[in-house]
Design a protein that fits this description.
It is a single chain. The chain has one domain: MFS general substrate transporter like domains (Growth Hormone, Chain: A), CATH 1.20.1250. Helix content is 82%, strand content 0%. The chain contains 15 helices and no strands. It is mostly helical and 399 residues long.
């Protein structure tokens, strides 16, 4: 008598599992495109542009800064965006792909500045809205590995972009064609996941309520705890961006063979990919907050290592420590925001991302201003601030 009901329940569970897997995969691709390519593809392409596009190191710094400023503006405006999250994600991915492709078409430095700023702006929107959209659907499923899969997208994008650049350099492909290739790849991947972010996704009442709250710009509750998260997340942005920006340069200073130093960036991305999945499989006794603290301490060690030893092995270890923690912090930070702010999580996530963006703008400026542009002093400042923020995060554990 109950067999049809049991079969229906089994089919429902399988449908929910398939839907959740599709959401996780869609989130992975979205972050790979928007962040792994839209923001970070410039790092492995820059050496190619130095060779064949007439770019100077100073020009490269300006282009990186334009992307960071765009990211900051995107985070600030995301707080007030009143639109369906799925529509924002789709639009942001399309613009990211077009802006990336256009980097290879135009040869005007002013146009490059605008395009890098636009890519940074869109990457912030996609990161914020895709994180909130995916977590809103995956959290009720109770499968942490799916959360980790979403945030593994950034590492997958970084590692893939870095490896592809190494292959293209060996094939003597120029920077312009490389940008165009990344643009086409971005648009193809966007088309593949387009249906995932459809309006009629069968996500259930909870997810629809989450979409309604996000679309209406539900405000976060600005408590002392939310301010703590914002400040610590901003310090994280400052601490990670110095090695994330200059690791390839440090590696090249240690060894001049591109077949060796060129792998510092793929190693960074691969560590980010693996670490997010591993973090999702951690024991339930390790809370998001405790993992965040541990990652800040590990990142502090990674930023300090090149100060005391400048060999290629040390640089690669720093890439593992920083790359293996920065996306875990992003993942657990977004989850902490969701726990604290509830329906206002998107606003808190946007504020945290804005603080992060401000930190990553300040970081390279410290390299330029402290100790005549050397890395050591700035890396030590980053190490100190990361340790201090780990202590600040631990205060809640003790209360």
């Amino acid at each position: 008598m109950h067999e049809p009901l049991n079969q229906a329940a089994a089919f429902s569970r399988r449908d929910t599992s398939a839907s959740a897997a599709a959401v996780a995969f869609g989130g992975l691709i979205a972050l790979a495109v928007a962040v792994g390519i839209g923001r970070f593809a410039f790092t492995p392409i820059m050496p190619m542009m130095l060779e064949d596009a007439g770019l100077s190191l100073a020009d490269g710094g300006w282009l990186a800064s334009a992307n960071y400023v765009g990211y900051l503006l995107g985070a600030l405006t995301a707080i007030r965006v009143q639109a369906r999250p799925a529509a924002v994600i789709r639009g942001g991915l399309v613009v990211t792909g077009l802006a990336t492709f256009a980097m290879g078409v135009g040869h005007s430095f002013a146009a490059w500045m605008v395009l890098r700023a636009l890519a940074g702006f869109m990457s912030a929107w996609v990161l914020i809205f895709a994180s909130a959209w995916c977590l809103g659907r995956l959290t009720p499923v109770g499968r942490p590995i799916l959360n980790g899969t979403v945030f593994a997208g950034v590492g997958a994008g970084i590692a893939s972009a870095g490896a592809l650049c190494i292959a293209l350099m060996h094939m003597h492909v120029g920077s312009a064609r490389t940008w165009e290739a990344f643009g086409v790849i971005s648009l193809v991947l966007t088309a593949c996941i387009w249906p995932v972010f459809g309006t009629a996704d069968g996500a259930g009442d909870g997810a629809r309520r989450h979409d309604a709250a996000a679309a209406s710009g539900a405000a976060a509750v600005w408590t002392g705890e939310s301010i703590r998260l914002i400040l610590c997340y901003g310090i994280f942005g400052f601490g990670y961006i110095i090695p994330a920006t200059f690791l390839p340069v440090m590696a090249k200073q240690a060894i001049h063979d591109p077949a060796i130093f060129g792998w510092s960036w793929p190693v960074f991305g691969a560590a980010a990919l693996v670490s997010t999945v591993a973090a999702a499989l951690r024991p339930k006794t390790t809370s998001n907050r405790r993992l965040w603290i541990l990652c800040h301490l590990a990142m502090a060690v990674g930023t300090a290592l090149p100060v005391f030893e400048d060999g290629i092995a040390t640089i690669m270890l720093a890439a593992l420590l920083v790359g293996g923690t920065f996306m875990v912090i992003t993942m657990v930070g977004m989850q902490e925001a969701r726990e604290i702010a509830g329906p206002g999580a998107t606003s808190l996530m946007a504020a945290m991302t804005a603080a992060f963006a401000a930190g990553q703008i300040i970081g390279p400026l410290c390299v330029s201003s402290i100790a005549g542009g050397g890395f050591d002093a700035a890396l030590l400042v980053a190490c100190f601030l990361l340790v201090a923020s780990a202590w600040a995060l631990s205060r809640r554990l003790q209360s």
